[in-house]
């Protein structure tokens, strides 16, 4: 017989986050047949050590929070305030339901990353999570600039990446007739997805790793840690002596 919890989880689906929810009777997984496996718990294993164990007293903003997996992990580490933002009301309904089931005090608010500054006002955050969103944006640099301005402490960032994994330095400026460099796969590149990638028409821009780092630098973010492919822990680059 289908339990009440199982029925509610099905009604709220489909889920992108496989969360483990439980009532008095049983544990229910929200996306047990996820094509990526036990996602994102299986991915989190590769970089959770890059997030401090103890977030007591710290504020967290999770942009593109989906059903709240990372918001919940941050709350479990003791963060005093966790705010999850997503533009999709269906995911927010899942997130609020999961928070209630898990007994975790996380606030979920509907909002768009392009308007994130207006949504949070003058607040900045000790920890900002911006995972799995950049490549879904038509205007990624515009959004990343806004996100970067909200980071008081650290940014946990992930983007899909494709192309060469090699990184090298290039001159800050190049002559107009330099063309060969654009054939070098290590040069920062963003692949533009006109139609679909992996069947998903919301995939727009996929950087190579050199481009990810260049985008982060351009938004005044320094990479502190790169615990696994596609994941970066960053902090605001200190502004050095004005000239
Ligand atoms: C691939 S999922 C990533 C979810 C989660 N952050 C993770 O890493 O597992 C992308 C999420 O970003 C949200 N999203 C996409 N574009 C957005 C936008 N412009 N503003 C806010 N959320 C957005 C989607 O609704 C979705 O929940």
Write out the CATH superfamily name: Vaccinia Virus protein VP39
Which topology does CATH recognise?
Rossmann fold
Compute the number of structural domains: 1
**How are strands sequenced across the largest beta sheet?**
5-4-3-6-7-11-10
CATH architecture: 3-Layer(aba) Sandwich
Instruction: Provide a count of the helices.
Output: 7
Mean pLDDT: 96
Small molecules in complex: S-adenosylmethionine
Percentage beta strand: 15-25%
**Backbone CA Rg:** 19 Å
Low-confidence runs of at least 5 consecutive residues: none
CATH class: Alpha Beta
Largest sheet report: 7 strands, mixed
The ordered H/E elements are HEEHEHEHEHEHEEEHEE
Instruction: Give the beta-strand count.
Output: 11
Q: Tell me the distance between the termini.
A: 72 Å
Question: What overall form do the CA principal axes indicate?
Answer: globular
Q: What class do helices, strands and sheet pairing give?
A: alpha/beta
Account of the 3D structure:
With 243 residues, the chain is an alpha/beta fold. The protein has one domain (40-236): Rossmann fold (3-Layer(aba) Sandwich). It has helices at 4-12, 41-44, 69-76, 89-102, 116-120, 140-149, 209-218, and strands at residues 20-22, 27-29, 59-63, 81-86, 107-110, 125-131, 151-158, 190-192, 205-207, 221-228, 231-236. Strands 5-4-3-6-7-11-10 form a 7-stranded mixed sheet, sandwiched between helices. A hairpin with a 2-residue loop joins β10 and β11 (231-236). The mean pLDDT is 96. The structure holds S-adenosylmethionine (SAM). Residues 16, 40, 64-66, 69, 86-88, 91, 112-114, 131-133, 136-137 line the site of S-adenosylmethionine.
């Amino acid at each position: 017989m289908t339990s009440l919890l199982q029925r509610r989880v099905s009604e709220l689906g489909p889920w992108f986050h496989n969360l483990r929810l439980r009532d008095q009777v049983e544990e229910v997984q929200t996306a047990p047949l996820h094509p990526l496996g036990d996602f994102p718990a299986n991915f989190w294993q590769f970089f959770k050590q890059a997030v401090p164990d103890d977030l007591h007293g710290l504020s967290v903003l999770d942009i593109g929070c989906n059903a709240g997996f990372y918001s919940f992990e941050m709350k479990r580490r003791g963060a005093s305030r966790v705010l999850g933002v997503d533009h999709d009301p269906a995911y927010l309904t899942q997130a609020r339901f999961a928070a209630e089931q898990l007994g975790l005090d996380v606030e979920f608010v509907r909002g768009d990353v392009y308007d994130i500054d207006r949504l949070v006002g003058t607040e900045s955050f000790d920890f900002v999570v911006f995972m799995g969103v950049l490549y879904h944006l038509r205007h990624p640099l515009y959004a990343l600039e806004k996100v970067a301005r909200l980071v008081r402490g650290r940014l946990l960032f992930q983007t899909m990446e494709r192309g060469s994994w090699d990184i090298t330095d290039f001159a800050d400026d190049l002559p107009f007739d330099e063309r060969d460099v654009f054939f070098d796969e290590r040069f920062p590149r963003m692949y533009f997805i006109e139609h679909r990638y992996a069947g998903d028409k919301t995939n727009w821009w996929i950087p190579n790793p050199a481009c990810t780092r260049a985008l982060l630098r351009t938004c005044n973010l320094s990479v502190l840690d790169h615990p696994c492919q596609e994941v970066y822990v960053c902090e605001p680059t200190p502004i050095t002596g004005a000239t």
